[in-house]
Design goal:
13 helices; 2 domains; Aspartate Aminotransferase, domain 2; four-stranded antiparallel sheet; globular; Aspartate Aminotransferase, domain 1; homodimer; alpha/beta
Chain lengths: 399, 399
C-alpha cells in the first residue's frame, strides 16, 4: 500500500553520518564515535545483588507502577540532591527512560510549531532532532570556553522571544567545555527576566576531572527555589551506573512535573519498574560515590592519553582544548578539511568519530569532530589514533 | 515565572475520572479499575533465573544497545510468530516500552494535525489521548458483538478518508469482545482498498478462555505478506509475563519499522537493555506457553466468578456479555445511571471501576463501566461486588 507518513517524519530522517556510523558497529572498527561509557567498569556484581534484593521483596516488584516513577528511588535521589545543597521533593521529580526522554517530554508539553528554542553552538544533536520534530525553530547563541556569550544571549532573547533555552553547561556534549559560575548566574538572570524556560541537561556533571575542590553548580541549584523556577534539570544514571538500566530523572516546578507525567502516560505509561527498583537498592547498599570517584579517575586518565596522542601526532592545523570532565574532546581540523568526508576514509582505515556538522543548529563548522575517550581502552586508543593519522594522511593527499 | 505551555498540553489534561481513581491506590479500596494482571502469578523465580543468566554473560549486558531492540529477543519473537503461521523477520519488528509506546510512535510518524483516525466505539482511552495529542480527529465506527460494522466502516472510509483505523479485535479493552473472522477479513479488505493503515493492538490475544480449538487470527496474519501490508501489529509481555519489564513489540512493513526506530531514537534512544535480555533468557529457558495456559485458566475462573456475582446481584437494568478472553467485563447500568457519579459513591464504599465515558470518541454512553476481573482474588471480588451493590443502592436512593 501507499504509506502516507506525517510531515514531521522528515525531522527523524537518517543522516548520511548515521548511515556511515552504522558501519562502525563491528569489532574491526575502533570507535571514538559513540558516547559509550567503559563497560569493563560497570558495577555488575552490585547491580546483580541489587536485583536480588528487589526480587526478594516479592511479586509486586513486577507489577505496573506509578507514571512518576518508583517513589523510594525519587526520595533517594532527593537525598542525593540535598547533599549538593539542592532542596527538591519527590513531587518535583519524574523518572524517565534516560534523560533523552526528559528532553522529548518537555518539548512535547512546552513547544508549539514555530516556537523558537535557543541552543548552544554546537550542541547535542539528538536534542536538535527532538526540537525540530515538534516544529520548533532552533537558533544558536555564541559562546566561548567560559560559557554562553551573555550579550549575544540577551540580543537573541529580545529578537526571537524564545520559549526555551537548552544548555549543557557542565562538560558539554559535544565540546566538553564547562561554564564558569558568572555565566551560569548571568544566563539564569536573563532567562528569569524574560520568562524563558531553561532546560539544563546534565548527564556528565559527576564526571569531573582534576582538582576535587572545583565545583560547577548547576543552574538549577542557583535559582532561588524550585517552585516557579525557570530551570528544568535532567540527568541520568547512564554515565554513573550503566546505560542498560535506561533510567534518568527530571526536576522542576511541581506543575511542570505533573504535566510531564501526563505526557509520559501517553508516551509509554511508565518506565521499567524493575530497573528503577534495582537502582534504588543499588543506591541503598552500594558505595556509588566511591564508584563514581573511581570512574572519574579512569576517564581523566583516558582523556589525558587521547589529548597526549593528539599533541604527539600534531596533525597540521589541528586544535582542541582539554575538557575538565565528561566524555568528549572537540577537535578542530585544518580549515579545508570536511570531517564528514574524512570519516569515510577513517572508516576504511578502521576508526570512527562523529563529524561536527550534526551538532550545529545552523552554519556548521565542517572541519570539526567529536572524539569520545571513555569507551576505548589504552591499547585501542593508541591504535585508533594511529589509524586516524593514516586516514588524515591519505585524505590530505586526496584533497 | 509564567509558564507558556504548548497548546497540545490540553490533550494530556487529567480527567475528573483519573483524579477520583487516584484515591483508589490505597489498600482500603478494592479496585476493579486498573488493567492489572494478578501479581501472585508472576513468574518471579523464572525472571530471577533469567536475570542471572544475563549477568553471567558479562558487562556488555549493561551497555547501550540498538534502538530497534535486542536482536536475539526479536529473533525469538519471530520464532513464536512463525508457530502461529506469521512470517516476520527481525527487520520488521521493533521493541518498545510496552505497546503504549508503539501507539505513540506510530501516531508520531504517521499522523498530521487534522488527520482522521477511525476507532471502535468504545475503545482504549489512552490511545484516544495519544491520537488527540498529535492533533488527530477521532471518529468512531459502530459495531456489534461480532466486530466492526462493515457498512458503517465503508461509509466512514468514504466520508472521512482517514489515514488510520485503530482496533483491538481480540478481547477488546474495554468491552472484552472478540471479532469473528469474517469481520477481520472484511475490515482488512476495505482498508487495503482505501490505503488506510490499520493499527492492530493485541495485548490480550493470548488470554483466551473456553474451547482451546477456537482461534482468533490477527488481522495482521490475514494480510498476504508483511511487505507493503496495511496492518501494523503491536503486543506486549505485560499481560503474559509481567508489566514491570515494560517490554512490547510492534511489527509491520520494514520501512514503517525503520521510521518508527528513528522516532524512537528521538523519544528515548532505546528501551531497557536489561529487561529485553532478561525476557530473551526467559523465553529460552522457561515454559512460557505452559505459564500462559495456567494464567488463562485462572483468569477464566475469575471472569466466571465476577459474571456469576453480576447475575446474582441482578441490579435493576444491568446488562453485560461474558467476554471470551482478556481482562475486562463491560457493564451497562440502567439508562439513568451516570457511572462517573456512581464511582464517587462507590469509592466512598471502598470499591472502584472505570466509568465508560472516557472510552468513547464521541457521544459517550454515561451508564457504562469497565470492570477488571484479573487483579482481585476470589475473596476480594466477592467483597468488592458487595460494596458496589451497597453503593448502587445508596446511589439509587440519591438520584
Amino acid at each position: 500500500m501507499n504509506y502516507r507518513y506525517s510531515s514531521r517524519l522528515g525531522s527523524f530522517s537518517s543522516s548520511a553520518v548515521r548511515e556511515i556510523l552504522k558501519l562502525t558497529q563491528g569489532d574491526a572498527i575502533i570507535s571514538f564515535a559513540g558516547g559509550l561509557p567503559a563497560e569493563e567498569h560497570f558495577p555488575v556484581a552490585a547491580v546483580s545483588e541489587a536485583f536480588q534484593r528487589v526480587m526478594a521483596q516479592g511479586n509486586k516488584a513486577l507489577q505496573y507502577g506509578l507514571t512518576e516513577g518508583y517513589l523510594p528511588l525519587r526520595e533517594a535521589l532527593c537525598g542525593r540532591m540535598a547533599k549538593k545543597g539542592i532542596r527538591v521533593t519527590p513531587d518535583e521529580m519524574l523518572l524517565t527512560t534516560g534523560s533523552q526522554q526528559a528532553i522529548d517530554l518537555l518539548t512535547r508539553i512546552y513547544i508549539d510549531p514555530g516556537d523558537v528554542i535557543l541552543v548552544e553552538r554546537p550542541t547535542y544533536l539528538s536534542a536538535l532532532q527532538v526540537f525540530r520534530s515538534y516544529g520548533a525553530e532552533t537558533v544558536s547563541v555564541e559562546g566561548d570556553s567560559d560559557g554562553l556569550d551573555l550579550a549575544d544571549l540577551e540580543a537573541k532573547l529580545m529578537k526571537y522571544k524564545p520559549k526555551m533555552l537548552y544548555v549543557i553547561p557542565t562538560f558539554s556534549n559535544p565540546t566538553g567545555k564547562s561554564w564558569n559560575e558568572e555565566r551560569r548566574r548571568g544566563v539564569l538572570e536573563l532567562c528569569q527576566r524574560t520568562d524563558t524556560l531553561i532546560l539544563e541537561d546534565d548527564p556528565y556533571g559527576e564526571l569531573k576531572f582534576g582538582d576535587a575542590s572545583l565545583t560547577y553548580p548547576s543552574i538549577f541549584s542557583l535559582a532561588p527555589q524550585v517552585e516557579g523556577s525557570c530551570v528544568v534539570y535532567t540527568s541520568t544514571f547512564s554515565k554513573t551506573v550503566a546505560p542498560g538500566l535506561r533510567t534518568g530523572w527530571v526536576m522542576g516546578d511541581a506543575d511542570i512535573i505533573r504535566n510531564l507525567a501526563r505526557a509520559k502516560q501517553a508516551a509509554d505509561l511508565q518506565s521499567s519498574t524493575l530497573d528503577q527498583q534495582t537502582l534504588y537498592q543499588l543506591l541503598a547498599h552500594f558505595d556509588l560515590d566511591g564508584h563514581i570517584e573511581f570512574v572519574r579517575k579512569e576517564y581523566e586518565s583516558r582523556m589525558r592519553q587521547m589529548a597526549g596522542l593528539l599533541r604527539e601526532h600534531a596533525w597540521p592545523g589541528v586544535s582542541f582544548e582539554e575538557p575538565k570532565g565528561g566524555m568528549f574532546i572537540w577537535v578542530e581540523f585544518a580549515p579545508g578539511i570536511d570531517a564528514g568526508e574524512l570519516l569515510k576514509t577513517a572508516v576504511q582505515h578502521g576508526v570512527a568519530f562523529v563529524p561536527g556538522v550534526s551538532f550545529f543548529s545552523e552554519d556548521p563548522k565542517l572541519n570539526t569532530a567529536r572524539m569520545n575517550f571513555t569507551f576505548a581502552d589504552e591499547a585501542g586508543t593508541i591504535e585508533g589514533m594511529n589509524r586516524l593519522s593514516k586516514a588524515l594522511e591519505k585524505f590530505g593527499a586526496l584533497v
